[in-house]
Structures are given as structure tokens and as C-alpha cells.
Amino acid sequence: MKKAKLQELDELRPEYQRTDFGELVRGKYASRISEETNVVVPEPDVAKAFPNGHVVEFRHPGK
């Protein structure tokens, strides 16, 4: 995309004013996301048997 196009996309539409929106807070929901995120890291021997999610679905259909 050209720089002119990027600047166009970065502008608010005329019907909106920056004052219409509340104060922005960086990272406001970061703690909530970190609490809700669930990452499972399998043991190496399990990872060999199930290298990706597609294999899990193939070996255990319907679960």
C-alpha cells in the first residue's frame, strides 16, 4: 500500500471527533487476556505422537 493510502486510513471520518471517545489506556485489558489464555505444552514424547492439531483431530474424531 502506498504511503498516501496509509495516511488516508489513519484519519478519522469527518463525522467522528477524537473528543467523542474516552481517554485511551494502553494495555487496559492485558491482564484479563493473560488470565484467560490457556497454553498447553505437551511432553516431548506426546509431541512426537501428536505433532499438530490436525493429527489430534484425525486420531480422535468427534472429541
Characteristic key phrases:
single chain; 63 residues; mainly alpha; 44% helix; elongated
How would you sum up this structure, described in words?
- The chain has a domain at 26-63.
- Helices cover 44% and strands 0% of the residues.
- The chain has four helices and no strands.
- It has helices spanning 3-10, 30-36, 44-49, 53-59.
- The two termini are 43 Å apart.
- The mean pLDDT is 76.
Structural class: mainly alpha
Helical segment count: 4
Shape call: elongated
- Give the SSE string: HHHH
| Major β-sheet profile | none
What is the CA–CA distance across the termini?
Answer: 43 Å
**What fraction, in percent, of the residue positions are helical?**
40-55%
Beta-strand segment tally: 0
Let me know the average pLDDT: 76
Question: How large, in whole angstroms, is the Cα Rg?
Answer: 22 Å
Beta strand %: under 5%
The low-confidence parts are: none
Compact description:
This protein has 63 residues and is an all-alpha fold.
Question: What's the SSE blueprint?
Answer:
Blueprint: H1 3-10, H2 30-36, H3 44-49, H4 53-59
